[in-house]
Give the backbone structure.
Amino acid sequence: MAKIVCKDLKKSYDGKTEVLAGINLEIQEGEFFILVGPSGCGKSTLLRIIAGLEGVSAGELIMDGKLANEMLPKDRNLTMVFQSYALYPHLSVRDNILFGLDVKKVAKDEQERRLAEAAELLGLTDYLDRKPRALSGGQRQRVALARSVCSQAPLCLMDEPLSNLDAKLRASMRVEIRRLQQRLGLTVVYVTHDQVEAMTMGDRIAVLSNGRIQQLGTPLELYNHPANEFVATFIGTPQMNMAIAEVQPEGLVLNDDVVVPLSAEDRAKLPAGTRWKVGFRPEQVYPATATSVHQVDVSVVSSEMMGNETLIFFNVGSELFTARWQGQHRVETGAALRVSLDPRYAHFFDVNTGALVRAAEDLDEQGARSTSVVDESLAARMEAAPAAPMA
Amino acid sequence: MALRSKRSLAGAEAAGAAAVAVPPKEAPGGKRSLAGWVYLLPSIAIFAIFVIYPFARTIITSFFATTPAGGLTQFIGLSNFITLFTDPLYTQAIANTLIYVVLTVPLTIVIALLLAVLTAQDLPGMGIFRTIFSATMGISVAAAAVFWNLLFNANSGVLNRIIEFFGGEGVGWLIDQNFALVSVSIISIWMNLGMAYLILLGAIKSIDDSYYESVDIVGGGFWYRLRRVTVPLISPSLFFVLTVTLISAFQSFGLIDMLTQGGPNNATVLLIYRLYRDAFVNFRIGSASAQGVILFIVIFAISYIQNKLTESKVTYQ
């Protein structure tokens, strides 16, 4: 049975503008479910409606098979981790973790047992007598998690819990939260604006924008088959390169500027005269080789060397395109670069509605599936792959 | 040999110092502190003239017999103090003051806290209540004295009319010596409510919503929220209000002077009012100074005890 079901859920504060404009989703028991979207998309509102901290304007919220529109937060058997952690400054870590258990009439020895367990699980055993202000950001985050663990509620709601941490800590807490969820078999609904968190933590992701679900699916479904232009550009960093494209006699014209030569095979798939929005993932803008059909000469605007990879920026019409190449490539600003923009790897969107018309073919440069099982042949292939030649 | 090694050591030290210490570009210590004192001078001067000198002079005067103008005539040691403590009217003033403080301070804070909690939510029309509850801040003691006098009037006052309407018997609010101190306390609570309310409201409004939402999720009720969240989180403001209200209660003067002048039968003579009468009506400056010193010691001691008792309960974020 689904843990949480939203049926055409709507929320409006003033009766005119809809913060949530008809949300339909099902969250399964034991699932790590992510609500992701830009600020103001309604994701936090949806989470607070699930928590019972906000009311529903229209539609149904069903939890554990019961209509929960009017149910009080305390009757929903859930916990919530807030962005601010909601740690009480006057209480020690111990009392912060145990906060609320007295209301739920949990016996003292049971409280102690849960405390010991949660503190052990989150590595807080040595800090139980400290006040929150004597803790680091990561430790405070752990105390907030420990409070949730202690309540033993099967559903945990998290509202951007990692946004106050530095990048390194965030990466390690991502793993820790995911591990905790799997170990305790929790159902987690997790709100974030960070698509990296969404991709790495979620079993399933709902991408929200303007109060609507743009797409709902597993991380790779969203990445490989984005339902529309919004999802395509929202998921993935650096973001997908977008351009207006049209097939003309000389090839695929991008932003009325760059012409990508097309093979007969390509032309068979792409009807002439139609305009699309076309999107190339940065990692699929390859350096052109001697045999490349889809080679394009561009001029480098700038480049960023990250050590393990290099980002190269160039103009396609008025749009700045990014190429992401493995390894270190020294590219001068203004240098001429020959890249391959293969339409097989491009996503085609309707130019007016932004809806997906044709997803990228599920291929990488070698013609293998881009998501593959890790086995020996893959290892051999990765090792044998030569460093990309310089343009 | 020793000399050479010493020299080389000094050289190394100099090199080390040159590498580490960048001499700060600022005036040498003496000049700097002098400039600091010059900047402080105006406030030090004002403080000295209006606080330190009168304070010192009061302490000295309290050990002397004085002329009505305050001139010192003869050193009499603790006589002023002994006379005061053997005066039953003065010990009554002490008792009155303590009763007045115990009646007004806790009630002011509890009522202000409850009103602040009730009006902290942002509901439509809440601004009206907030304005009403903090309005006493803008009312002068003189104006308050006038209309409370009307309300408390034993014959035509509204309060007695109400009591009589319900079949009770009217009370001589300000003219009955058993009631006068209570009546003055009621007015004082009402007067001080606005300030305390506003400070506590501000503190409550600054509490992050997530603290309360956490309580909602576990299912704590009104008292749980108040006890576990609101009071601890506004403890610095509560502490401030407590201290200020306590000290101002010991120094209540205006209402007494305008409503009862200490009467009936000295029932509302507080320490500060007695001091005023001795200093500016009877011109017994020596005794008045001694009373000032006593009042200072009492306020200091009570504030100190209060501070110690509440210290561990106050959490600054």
Remarks:
- The interface with chain B takes residues 51-53, 72-75, 78-80, 82-86, 88-91, 99-101, 103-104, 131, 133, 151 of chain A (CB under 8 Å).
- The CA atoms of residues 350 and 371 of chain A lie 26 Å apart.
